[in-house]
Amino acid sequence: MRRYWFPKRYADSVARLRVAAGFLLAFLFAWFARPTLTSLAAGAGVAALGMAVRAWAAGHLAKNEQLATTGPYAYVRNPLYLGTLIAAAGFVVASRRPALAVAFGAVFTLVYLPVIEQEEQHLRKLFPAYAGYASRVPLLWPRLRGSPGGRFRPELYRRNREYEALLGFLAGIAILTWKAL
Questions:
Q1: Domain membership flag for residue 172
Q2: Are the C-beta atoms of residues 90 and 102 closer than 8 Å to each other?
Q3: Residues 33-46: pLDDT tens digits?
Q4: Which of 7-16, 73-82, 86-95, 112-121 has the lowest average pLDDT?
Q5: Residue 1 lies in a domain
Q6: Rounded to two decimals, what is the model's pTM?
Q7: Does residue 3 sit within a domain?
Q8: What b/e string do you get for 2-38 counting C-beta neighbours within 10 Å, with b at 16 or more?
Q9: Given this model, what pLDDT does residue 1 score?
Q10: 176 CB-near residues (< 8 Å, 6+ apart)
Q11: Host domain of residue 114
């Protein structure tokens, strides 16, 4: 029997708060960030890398239809969350506010990790092969061995609505640019 980090009742509760927590973080970043053009350039590059990881993952993910094991899923079980972590790190660099790193870390730990755990429980029930996959592929820290296989499918990118994350990224960069100027 697999042991879990968070009680199911807690994970269920915070799963409903995930979107609200994202908006709260966006507000905090917009309000407290003090970017310079230099910090913005550095941070935007890191954040863009995170968004590229998210896009790559979305193009390999047929939710609830097939176990995703190609593309970035060959290296890490949660590339969408990894991309979010990288993008957030970029926004922290751009903001020049370490307190925002603490805020994001708290939200990731208290909201996103329980959601990841809840999603893993769902995948274990839905796909019998998930247990073997999970034993070979790390949760969040990629193991870059072998070939990713598969091909990026633009229709999955659209179906997963990853363009919404891209629009949020662009809005964040626009706000930080306005603040830097």
A1: yes
A2: no
A3: 999 999 999 999 99
A4: 7-16
A5: no
A6: 0.91
A7: no
A8: eeeebeeeebeebbeeeeebbeebeebbeeebebeee
A9: 44
A10: 29, 33, 35, 40, 43, 44, 91, 94, 95
A11: 8-180
